[in-house]
Amino acid sequence: MPSVRLACALALLFTLGSCRGGTVRRPVEVGNREMPGGVVSLQWQLTIHKHGLFEPWPEECATGVVDKNFLYLGSRNREIIAVNLRTAKIAWRTKVDPQIDSQAILDPVRNHVLVGGDDGTLFVLDRADGKIVWKWKGEGSVDRPPAFDGERVYVATSQDKLYALDAATGKPAWSYDRDRPEGFSVHGYSAPVVVGGQVYAGFSDGFIVGLDARSGDIVWARSLASASEQFVDVDTTPAHLDDVVVAASHSGGLYGLDRVDGKVRWRQAIDGVGTQTLIRDTLYFVAPRGGLHAADPKTGQIAWRYGLSQIGEVTAPQEAGPYIVFSSNKTGFNVVRKTDGELLQTFQPGRGMCAGAALDATGRNAYLLSNGGTLYALALIW
């Protein structure tokens, strides 16, 4: 039977705290001592999608991308927009048919911005005026950012399908898919990563595959499902450092694989690894029971772990100077110390955030779309 998305399954692992107002705040107590404040400052805010008063659980999961003085962003308002960050005003807006929940990426070669839609459409727009250069539609929704190698765009969809498209025209080059498992699967899926002439992506049947970027042929395929028959999804976007690829199965744990042949080099049996990011030579990842972790991607050795209660579902950790930042559908925008993961401050706009932060080149400015449809410009202070 068709797989059933269990977005609530992960949320049940946590107890939701009381609602709070839209203010910048520090945690009252972490580890029985008061935390330093003043690392986040609200600069301005702009309404992008005005949700109704009686809409109980709105979500806005689209993440923008910053280039110089502009932010490019989609929303569930069925728009893709460019925001002038100097004036905090919308420079252009382009209406589209689907709602947008994906992360925008840039094609610097052609001056394009790429945004995926919930109906499976990939939109490629001119960054100067927002005109659609070309669009393409696949099967499923495009909720994860495509990968880009200069000549081709690699797009994964929620139906376990992966496509390679010509970056200039959108003409399909090849496609790859796997059979979706019957029964339950975890909400979310892996974005593709392209490196060294190969494309890596995870699938809901517990496999991660390495494909030849030019032909789409399988180079290797590895199951990370362990002994479990349920919740085996590989939903993490693969990370890579030199000759190691890191990915995780929801029930099988975190794996370090040989990039050439997919052989397992190491494994950490940590359930529910959801998001991960490689920052220089350190892998940062979040698991519901263990909180935020820092690990060596070559060996899997955990450097430190910091528990984060009532955190809910989170976006991929990002580096911002001395901090790691991420969003949560329960606690909003979180700033932690990079050296040990200690939570320093949160920004909670009232309805949480499922969108990640778009950081500028300095890492000192973050732009986030809240679930309530408001774009917030935050300054990070260090």
Please, how many helices? 1
Structural class of the secondary structure composition?
Answer: mainly beta
| Topology-level CATH name of the domain at 70-177 | Lipocalin
Mean pLDDT equals 87
Which labels suit this protein?
382 residues, 4-stranded antiparallel beta sheet, mainly beta, Lipocalin, disordered N terminus, 1 helix, Thrombin, subunit H, 45% strand
Explained architecture:
This protein is mostly beta strands and 382 residues long. Among the domains are: 70-177, Beta Barrel (Lipocalin), CATH 2.40.128.630; 185-278, Thrombin, subunit H (Beta Barrel). 1% of the residues lie in helices and 45% in strands. The protein contains one helix and 35 strands. The chain has one helix spanning 7-11; strands at 4-5, 23-25, 40-47, 65-67, 70-75, 79-84, 89-95, 105-107, 112-116, 121-126, 132-137, 147-148, 152-157, 161-166, 172-177, 184-185, 193-195, 198-202, 207-212, 218-223, 239-241, 244-249, 253-258, 264-268, 275-279, 282-287, 291-295, 302-306, 318-320, 323-328, 332-337, 343-348, 358-359, 365-369, 374-380. The strands form nine sheets. Strands 2-32-31-30-29 form a five-stranded antiparallel β-sheet, with no helix packed on it. Strands 3-35-34-33 form a four-stranded antiparallel β-sheet, with no helix packed on it. Strand 10 and strand 11 (132-137) form a beta hairpin. The longest helix is centred in the first third of the chain and has 5 residues, at 7-11. The protein is globular and about 50 Å long.
